[in-house]
Specification:
- By secondary structure, the protein is an alpha+beta fold.
- It contains 7 helices and 7 strands.
- The strands form 2 sheets. It has a 5-stranded antiparallel beta sheet with strand order 6-5-4-3-7, with helices on one face. A two-stranded antiparallel sheet has the order 1-2.
- β1 and β2 form a beta hairpin.
- The chain is elongated.
Length: about 230
Amino acid sequence: MNRTDRLYAIVEDLRAVAPRPRSARQLAGDYEVSVRTIERDISALQQAGVPIYANTGRRGGYALDPAMTLPPLNFTPEEAVAVSVALQHAAGSPFAHAARTALRKIVAAMPAREASAAHELASRVRFMTPVGTSRPAAIPGIIQKAVADRRVLRLDYLDRYDQPTERVVEPVMFVASPNGWYLTGWCRLRDSLRTFRLDRIVTVEETGEQAPVRPPGPVPAEIAGFEVQVAALA
């Protein structure tokens, strides 16, 4: 059994007995690998977002939180790869990391045979970019969390003339356009709703202050002229 198949099988084993734990020694015996290999596998699954926790003591081991897991999903390999292709568009967005972890959770919840077939099919899909094109800069997760939790941010920002400025911003929403991603928020320096291109934010710090609820307002003039759509979940 290769490592990918073993990882999915471990998740299914833990899901089947949850919330009871299984020890690393039991898992190692089942998969004919060392205890150290199982510990590395569990660590990899935890880093991928699978809610596995360790119970200590003589009857301890690894357990899967049943309240935080998906049942086996009836995704076909083609559907899983279609989701992967769609999520490629999240690169360079505030949700790039969340997109990757969401895909891992979806694949981890698929039956092992379908998940393995999805991996094989995905290996035969390629994306082409122009030579010399740099990868989008990573967006700090602190900005995504601040929008979700309505937390005030302090930004070191380069304006359209590349002049540095410091702003204290109450995040309101994200806006995506063909020119990139923007953060719209209430700028306390300008005392008005302003838009900040995410790739112009040099440093960002959460102040810990709760931001008041503010209406989104109109589409900023900097990105006007594009059709605006809401990111619906269905």
